[in-house]
Write a structure and sequence with these properties.
Number of helices: 1
Number of domains: 2
Strand order of the largest sheet: 6-13-10-11
Number of strands: 13
Order of helices and strands: EEHEEEEEEEEEEE
Shape: flat
Distance between the termini: 47 Å
Low-confidence stretches: 4-27
Length: 221
């Protein structure tokens, strides 16, 4: 049996979800405090061969939305269930989740089960380690014809401004990512900004889907 989880969201969104014991420091964060945002895929092998299923989903049909919803009551992150125990699996509300933006794909170990999409993906991380400053873009060229996506990870050491009277304010970084195709066509899939305050390292991850061999340029100002 296997299960795949994808967590996509800002950890600051979890402050009011009722699992303060996991991240108690977030309870006192100001509203404009920045937190790192990245993506994670978890593949958890729970058993060898076919198993009965998830206890909270007993009586429901495997493969249905209701079953998958109920199963999330038995999937824990940091000792906290993804779905609250009193949630109705046939009518789940956003407020029933302790974590938001979760995609759950279970398998039960049968001999004819289908594979879970995304697990076979091959990823290679390439460190750039270059500081991006205003009006000085950083360009990287992709030559592998088998690549169909790029994930760009940006790290901000801190985003703060201290005023003369001692206040600590947030700052704004405007971010642009441009893609240049082999035929010279230029597109701008990302034109956004990061705004808030952070006294420590903050990470932002952006995923770009490609359709052919390209080189891409990203500019932060």
């Amino acid at each position: 049996m296997g299960a795949k989880l994808r967590i996509d969201g800002d950890i600051a969104d979890f402050r009011h979800t009722g699992f303060g014991g996991l991240l108690p420091a977030l309870q006192a964060l100001p509203l404009d405090a920045l937190s790192s945002k990245q993506f994670i895929t978890i593949v958890d092998v729970l058993a060898e061969g076919e198993i009965e299923g998830f206890p909270s989903a007993a009586g429901l049909t495997q493969g249905t939305t209701a079953y998958n919803n109920a199963a999330l009551k038995d999937v824990f992150l940091g000792n906290t269930p993804i779905l609250r125990s009193n949630a109705d699996p046939n009518n789940v509300q956003d407020s029933d989740f302790n974590f938001q933006n979760i995609k759950f794909t279970p398998r039960f170990g049968s001999s004819d089960q289908t594979f879970i999409k995304g697990i076979s993906n091959i990823e290679t991380e390439t460190g750039v380690n270059v500081q991006v400053v205003q009006d000085t873009p950083v360009t990287r060229t992709i030559t592998n014809s088998n690549i169909d996506a790029i994930r760009v990870t940006l790290r901000f050491t801190a985003l703060t401004e201290v005023t003369d009277d001692g206040q600590t304010l947030g700052r704004t970084v405007n971010l642009t990512i441009k893609i240049t195709d082999n035929n010279g066509t230029v597109t701008t899939p990302i034109s956004d900004r990061v705004h808030g305050r952070s006294l420590m390292l903050t990470v932002e991850t952006i995923e770009l889907i490609l359709h052919q061999v390209q080189h891409f340029q990203y500019l932060s100002r």
